[in-house]
Amino acid sequence: RMYRFLKYAASILLVLSPVLAVLVFSDLSWTFSKPDEAILKISIKHSGKREVECDDLAMIQEEAEAYRKMLKESHQARMKLKKLGKCSRARHVVYALLLIDWKTALAHNFQPGGINKDSASFVYAKVPVTPGIHKIEFMMNDSGEADVFDYTLKEEASFSSGRIRVIGLDESNKRLFIR
Which of 143, 166, 164, 146 is nearest to 155 (CA)? Predict the structure, then answer.
């Protein structure tokens, strides 16, 4: 009888031990940075402009018009679509420049993804910042033109210890923001 009681008590403790561990350790706080610093994270997925602008739709419309004209005149026609798809789909790199209190914290070219360099660039960086109020300037170029920035953000932002602020891009409004 005593053996049976010990067996049940041991099995109950075994089952409840993970619950007790979660209760004890869930109260511990966790920060992703050093306690005396904050983090400014840049997280943007953006497609740079094409290196060569090519309008496939206009080319198709021109060929369709020529096709209709040939069909009216000779009752037979061939569409020439060999030119279609010959345009390079490669995109420019996305250049990002981050200034914190007028000091360069990040200056980097983010390459476009994909085998043919035709996908979006992923602009991602984590920059440690001392707590307090800082002047943030973030500029981004996706057109390949030197010294011309297509997107700019100039803002004073407050940073507190152990906290993360994020710079992102609102694609629909074409503007940068800090959260």
Answer: 166
- The residue count for the chain: 179
Nearest alpha-carbon partner for 42 in 147, 163, 138: 138
Which stretches of 52-166 are DSSP H helices?
A: 56-74
Dump the DSSP string for 15-75.
HHHHHHHHHHHTTS---SS-TT-EEEEEEEEEPPPBSS---HHHHHHHHHHHHHHHHHHHS
Cβ atoms < 10 Å from Cβ of 137: 17
What's the half-sphere exposure (Cβ side, CA atoms, 13 Å) at 157?
24
Cα 118 to Cα 110: distance, rounded to the nearest angstrom: 13
Q: What is the pLDDT of residues 146-161, one digit of tens each?
A: 778 889 999 999 999 8
Q: From edge to edge, which strands make up the β-sheet containing 151-159? A: 103-110, 94-100, 132-141, 151-159
pLDDT digit string, tens, across residues 10-51: 899 898 888 888 877 776 666 666 778 899 999 998 887 776
**139 token code pair:** 């500029």
